[in-house]
Amino acid sequence: MTDTLVNWGLIPFLKIALLLNVILGVVAYLTLLERKVIAFMQVRLGPRRVGPHGLLQPIADVLKLMIKEDIVPAKSDHLIFALAPAITLAPAIIAFAVIPFSGTPAPLTLFGHTWSITPWVTDINVALLYLLAVSSIGVFGIVLGGWASNSKYPLLGALRSAAQMVSYEVPLGLSVVGVLILAGTASLTGIVQAQERAGIWFFGPQIVGLFLYFVAGVAETNRAPFDLAEAETELVAGFHTEYTGMKFAVFFLAEYMNMIVVAAIVTTLFFGGWLPITFGLGWVIPALPGILSLQFLGPWGMFFAGIFWFSLKCFFVLFMYLWLRATYPRYRYDQLMRIGWKVLIPLALGNVVVTAIALTVYRSLKG
Amino acid sequence: MFQTTEMEINLGPQHPSTHGVLRVLLKVDGERILESKPVIGYLHRGCEKLGETRPMPQVVVYTDRMDYVAAFAGNLTYIEAVERLIGLEAPPRAKYMRVVLAELQRIASHLLWLGTHALDIGAMSVFLYCFREREMILDLFEGYCGARLTLNAVRIGGQLNDFPDGWVDEARRFLNAFPKQVEEYETLLSQNRIWIERTRGVGVISAEEAIDWGLSGPPLRGSGVAWDIRKSNPYAAYADLSFDVPVGENGDTYDRYLVRMEEMRQARRLALEALDKMPGGDVRAKVPKRLKPPAGAEVYHATESPRGEMGVYLKSDGSETAYRCRFRSPSFVNLQALPALVKGHLIADIVTLIGSIDIVLGCVDR
Q: Which residue in chain B has the smallest CA separation from A41?
């Protein structure tokens, strides 16, 4: 009885609490990273006032947002106005539930019992579908927020965002089909294990899928060059023009969490999740992957090595996000729609067909 | 049961990309603009009336504050108009100095335009790169006259004073390094698919329309009309210097962009040539203590400011104060093309087009 309670109640609860705090910290420092990286790309220094090299800037930002006055427009729909940020944030948070941060469960002995700690909150066999389903809920918050503000610029931003996210949902879903065909499972741990077994990460055979997923993911998270919903120079601040203080912060938080979710999925599906980076030397030195994932330190070593490799790959994907933002101008609404429907979707469909045929041919050749 | 209605949007006067206090009333159907009406006057300070109530040497500071992005162009136009009115000529060295400063000002102004225009379209980095170089030009200005933005460096009958020691070397160093910087901006934009899609075919002005509207400067040349006051009615020392007038073909935003980029290169060439050919001698002619223009004399003097034809009309009643002072500002005239340009485009395009016309509200409202 106690075992069941601990296994299904206490441990997941503690893991969720820990994960939530870590993710919030990562989001806070992702904003600093973004400002620093873009600043260096633009021959500036970025924040430097709060703490050494501006390291305490995120904390100052959060404090500032918390003590700001919470302005609610008089003619807005007060309930929905307050609810919208929460609707945007919730799916971003729960998406983390299925992401495997590392591959090996580690045993923890406490009070004479040994518990197996898995480096994911839950591992369900339809994880990928779950992620697609969850990520499409986020748009409701944006649309409702823009609508409830009862203001023109937010309304335009919300409409843009609705059209954009609905359009890009399709290539986003189609682009992962190739990975599903190759892995034969929708469980994220299963997909990484399939890449380990195949000895090649799926970004090789699925380079088109990776490209499609990343582009659609950038569009889905409303980031540059697809940041039409909050195009500062056109729509002032887009859907969150009327939001202040913590309500605005929650929208902001959701956007950055979604970025991390996309980065985590790209890492898991295409870059071998927690597997160590060996630059192909694994073929030459068979022991190298084992060494790099700290096998000699036992399960806990592998546990943390997996998290390290996973974070490193996520970081590179997030860096791509920031790089894009510093480089590209913004697409226009009609061009964005055209790319989504006329370029990405046909490409994604073609990718599915080609992958399926290639795999069938490969298997029949192999016998 | 369902019906669609047009929405009216008020763009400005406080909006991130109206480049000052321009207000545009938009009537939109979804994202498509059906009608637009620019509303101006938020920065009206009555420069023309002030020009009729103060002695002419005192009016120069108001010309600084009209086109505050290219203050030197305003100074130069007014001073040269006054010089023509009283029949005075600046010494040759001063004329060459005016060319150097005017062309540096043109580069600075175009850099600010490029940065904000790119920022409007969403490319943030270009903005900061442009400001890096603009800062160097402002430092040069500061080194010459102490002011960075509102220079007020031209005097009736010449220049305030000669270039200080080492200034010419600094200016040469900047100008020699500058082409590489322009290339850097171009690598980010000229071949960028998104940039091309956002600007090509947007806001097309045909050559006839451009002339009918009285456009001047890059918007006119972008439509393929090679008309540049520096060539057609040379002032300062432009008659002795060689430069090309870049023109566009299609008259769209992309062509206006290319024209301005090439103008920056030509401005550099002009400034370098003027530095090379610069004669010695005084920088200021003998100017009477009290200016006495002949009564009834009138003059219209126009120069090619970075934004187009900057004109000053002065009429004298024989006193030190002009009887009538009128400024023809290029931004004001060019802005009138906006409603026709944005018609049928999307909301995102209006900020592109405001940037493409390159208005300065101080210059529009005077």
A: B125
